[in-house]
Amino acid sequence: MVKKILLLGEEKLYQKSDLVEKGEDLTETVSDLHDTLMDFKSRYQAGRAIAAPQIGVGKRIIYMYLDRPVVFINPWLEFPDDEEMEVLDDCMSFPNLYVRVKRHRRCVVRYVDMDWKSREMRLEGDLAELLQHEYDHLEGILATMRAVDDKAFCMRGE
């Protein structure tokens, strides 16, 4: 079911998410994340991932859909080096706003999948930035809070 995406300023977006416990039924939440992401993508021609807090679910779940779905449960990020990049970040919770932020160029994400198997993924460039953005949602951090300075904001053009 397509859920309402919480918007900038809504209190639930600023709360740290709880760990998912083994055995929790995530079927409905993952389905809702998928439907909501696909709906957003069809309306805005953008969107590659969504975090559970964006639909009001305070659990550590990230749903990413590129060529296939990947569900990150209880992800943990590590950075193999200090190299950073500056990017214009956008978000489904503020769909017409870009924020200039710094992100690590590379990251390693460790997580469990839907079968509760431990997984690891190494990401670089735009996918590393994407995972860091979604991971921040699990921590109650929005891109607006990571702006490089007070002039780091711009509106999306038509």
Could you explain how this protein is built, in words?
- There is one protein chain.
- With 158 residues, the protein is α+β, with helices and mostly antiparallel strands.
- It has one domain: Peptide Deformylase (Alpha-Beta Complex), CATH 3.90.45.
- Helices cover 20% and strands 34% of the residues.
- The chain has two helices and eight strands, in the order αβββββββαβ.
- The longest helix is centred in the N-terminal third of the chain and has 18 residues.
- It is globular and about 45 Å long.
- The chain starts with 26 loop residues before the first helix and ends with a strand.
- The model has no long low-confidence stretch (mean pLDDT 96).
List the helices and strands and how they pair.
Blueprint: H1 27-44, E1 49-51, E2 61-65, E3 69-78, E4 84-91, E5 94-104, E6 106-112, E7 118-124, H2 126-139, E8 153-155
Antiparallel strand pairs: 1-2, 2-3, 3-6, 4-5, 5-8, 6-7
